[in-house]
Structure formats: structure tokens, C-alpha cells
Predict the structure.
Amino acid sequence: MRAELVVAPILLPLCTAGLMLLLGEGRRSAKALANVLSTLLSLAIAVYLMLEVDRQDAVAAFGIYLPGNWPVPFGIVLVADRLSALMAVLAGSVGLASLLYALARWQHAGVYFHALFQLQLMGLYGAFLTADLFNLFVFFEVLLAASYGLLLHGGGGARVRAGLHYIAINLMASLLFLIGVAVLYGVTGTLNMADIAQKLPTVPHSDRGLLHAGAAILAIAFLAKAALWPLNFWLPGAYTAASAPVAALFAILTKVGVYAILRLWTLCFPATAGASAHFGGEVLVWSGLATLAFGAVGMLASQQLSRLASHSVIASSGTLIATTGFDAPILSSGALYYLASSTLAGCALFLLVELLERSRQVEVGPQQLDDGQDRLPTFFDAAPPPGVNLDDNEDALIGRAIPSALAFLGLAFVVCTLVVAGLPPLSGFVAKLAMLSALLEVGTTAAWTLFGLLIVSGLFAVTGLMRVGMRHFWTGREGVVPRLRVIETLPIGLLLAASLALTLWGEASLRYTRQMAEALHSPQGYIQAVMSAQPVTQQAGGHP
Amino acid sequence: MEVVISLAIGVMAGAGVWLVLRPRTFQVLIGLSLLSYAVNLFIFSVGSLAIDKEPIVKPGLAADLVSYSDPLPQSLVLTAIVIGFATTALFLVVLLALRGLSGGDHVDGQEDKA
């Protein structure tokens, strides 16, 4: 594998975005074409990286690139291992789906949509591929800055209000990130993640408290990003206000926080870390459980599909953070499979939201029922709307053809429900089964709590989604057929097909995540691979 | 010198936190700026404070932190200042947009009903 390929997914969107800015405000179709090509190409590179990393037989396999060609602890390092490659592929897939959807109408809502979109992808790829703590901060800021712009895409009072909250929260989180990085640098004298992990066991006892404080402050920054309870009240408002393709793209943003926790916690605080072994593991487990419970109750309480989708994102984050804290490779393996499955399904759900709302021209209940106010929702639909046939014997309903658009929406919604709630036969079920069987082996109190919560949250998810589904598909609809365009249905179909593929090739996917989990939980391989990377010498004809 | 720097960081961080918790958008903006100054000073100070020491290695002087100041925090601060400035400017734009759309400067876009 050519090492330069590791940096390609970052450079490609950056150059494309720069090119788009040069094109000015017009030439929308040229920009759209460039955006699609660049997104496709970077996804292809990410997939190639994943296959390449997986082909090497060792438990931990790496593609390493030194952008400045400095020797390792001094310069920035980019590393593609199984986890980074998987996250990059997920980012690319979610990006491609959102972009295709946006081509239908949302791209016309603002001038710089395509450039911001490419910068967002650049930040995502960079955050997943970098192995340097401060470089991670820079890529975080790149993806956050782009996400501020994308969240405001389309304008309007609700978006600006949600955007202001979102920016304020994320600026605070970034400041905490900086404090954490500075403390870790002060204690260990390095910013390279592998080097930090290597030096942690030798930190003198007097500095141990400072080290732990720094790590905890850093973790708060990531956990606020990952929407951990009680740091997640910004999420439903922001994701509900965002336009559909942007909300779908944001399905991967919480996973960036999850990724950072997964990467740094397993790297720095494994069982072999001496005095710091499993630092904060309990906190991760129990706050993850609280987040999962919060998300599940939120799903049940949501009256609006977009808020329900936001809470499903929170529940998925909670599951992932909780499973990380157990430090059990077999559990992480299931959780990583769940990460892929829930990201794809969450993205599809956010895309479906808008199509369903559009198809619902007969508004049965007022839209502002679930506007975040502190009052109990009045349950509508108590009396059937006029024209609804409630009698089984009225023959008028029989034989009425279901419009194909409605059939597609219904089918896609059912598939989404199955994946999000973790019902057989799709990938959500495989993921939950893998996690549940692993939890049986762990067998602690926390494990049993997670076991119960996973099942209950599935029940809550299916109840909430079914209620929304009944309201959208079974209520009276006098000749109203939603108008869908192929370009809007295509990305949803692709995402659900990817979920189906995850199920069909479940054995291979689970083997991949198992090897990933084993490499994550025994970080020596990662540390050695990064520390032994050599700069390219001029004699070898390499280009730095 | 350590006391002066610590006091400066503490006062700015305290004032920043108080302002960020206020309900007016401009107060939040100033609070975030103060906090970012505090954080920048903090990053600068983790590289150990020194007077009259250069970060660039000179021939004939042993290359360790006894004779030089640590150059890395200084470059980190530079990056953090640039990023912080850009995001604060963006926040200011959104603040003005909200001011125009809602006609008030409350962070929620409307005054408390209580």
C-alpha cells in the first residue's frame, strides 16, 4: 500500500473545496458534479484503505504516513488502522448519501453548500486518520466550523437560534479540549497519541493527579460531542432544526466523539497502564447507561419524527460509550458492528423524516406540539379525521392501489425501524445479539443493567417508531400522493442496502470488528507501529 | 511571575464563565472571548515560564529546557488564537442574524416568560 493514500482522503476534499470557492457563487451544476466526484473518490479511497488494512494478517495492521517527514514523536503522524478505516468508510458513505439527497433541492438553499460539505468531509476524515492530539483538535475545529455553516444552511429563525446554542456549546467544548491537551502536554511532554500512551506508566506519582484531571477535562470535551447525558441537551434542538441532508450528515458527528473516546481511552488507560489502569472506566459505563436510558425515554416521548431520530442518535451514543468502559474485546466487537449499523440507519432515518413530513399534507395534529416546551402533549387523533374508514366491512378500501411512492416510504420506514430497534432479521439485530451474548460473559452488575437497558430501549424504539408510522401511513389520506424524486429515494435505498449487506456478510463484518477490538484493547501493537515509523529518505526517491 | 499569570488566568476564566452563563448573546460572546484568552495563557504557561530564554537553538548552548524555552506551546497558542478568532467571528455573525430575526438579544430568541 502506498503510504500517501492515507493522506489522500484529507487532501482531496480540501482541494475540491478550494476549487469551488474559486468558482465563485454561480456554476452550481459544475460544483455539484465536483462534489459528487470528490465524495465518491474519497469514499473509494477509504474503502481501499479498509480492505488493504484488513488484508494484512497481523492482528493490528496499519497504514502510516508522516506528512512533514519528521521523525515520529516530533512530527504529525497519520495512521489508518482498522478502526480509523471503518470510521472513514462510514463518513464517506453517510456523506455520499446526504449529498445525493441534497442534490434534489437542498443544494439550492445556499451558495456555499458544496464547499462547506467538502470541508466537513475533510474534517471528518482528518479526525479519524490523525494520530496526533493537537492535530485532532485542528480537524475537530475544521469539521465543527463547517458544521456551523451547514447547520445554518437554509436559514430561518429556528435554525439560527439552534445554531447559536450549538456554536456556544461547541466553543466551550473546544476550550476544554485545549485545556486537556495542554495539561497532557505539560505532564508527558508530547502530543503524539502513541507516545503519550507509552509515557503514561512512567509519569511520577506527584503528577498523576494532574494527568488524570487533564484526561478527564479532555474526555468532557469528547463526551459533549458524543452527546453523553447530561451534556446532550443541545442535540435534539440542533438536529431537528437542521435541514434533512445536514441532519443525516450529522449522524456521523456524534460518532466522532465516540471515536475519540474509544481511541484515546483504550490507548492510554488499558489494564496494563499501571496506576492509571481503567481510569474513568466506571464513569464511562454508568454515564453511557444513563444516556441510553435518556435516549430510550426520549424516543418514547417524541411526538415529531425528527426529535425521535435525534433521541435514537443519543441512545446509540450511550450504548457505544457504555460498552467502551467495560474494556472487554468481545463486547467491543459487537459494539463496533453496532456503530456501523446504527450510523447508517440513523442517517437513513433523518433523510426519511423530511419525505414523510412532505407526504403528510393532511396535517392531523399541529406541528408545534413538540417544540421543547415543558407541557404534556395533548394526544391528538382521538377522534378519527373525516373520511377515514374505520369499519372492516366497508368495502371501499379494499382494492385501492398503494401509490409506489407511499409503498417505498412505508417499506423504507419499516426497514429503518427494524435496524434502529434491533429486531430480526437485519443488522441491528445481529449487533444487539453480539453485544447481549458478550454481556452474558462479562456478567457484572453494570453488564446486567446494560443487558436489560438494551432490550428495553429496543422496545421503546419500536413503540415510538410504530406510533409515528401509524400516524403517517394509516391515517386518512384523501388522494394525497407524495411526490418523490429518484435522487431522493436513491440514497435511502443505498443506506438500507448497506445495512442489508452488513447482515448478509455478517460473519465477515464481525470478524473484522473482532480483530479491530482485539487490536484496540491491546494497544502495544499500535504504539510500536507508530513509534517505529521511519521518515522517507531522499535516497529512496520518496517525496516528503 | 507564576502568581501574576495564575491570577490573570483565574480572573479571566472566572469572568468568562460568569458571562457565558448570562442570558444576553453579547455577554456570551465576550465571555467566550475571555475564556479563550484564559485558555491561551494557560497553554502558554504549561511550557514552563522563563524570562530571556529563546525557543530557537543556538550553537554552543546545550539543547535542553534549562537554556531554552519550550517552543511547542507557543506554536500551539498561535494555532489556538487563529482558530478561536475565526470561530468567535462566526459566532458574532450568528448573533447578529439572531438579533435581526428575533428582534431581541436573548440567547433563546425570546425573553423569559416568568
Q: What stands out?
A: The longest helix of chain A spans residues 157-188. The beta strands of chain A are 63-65, 78-80. Residues 427 and 503 of chain A are 5 Å apart (CA to CA).
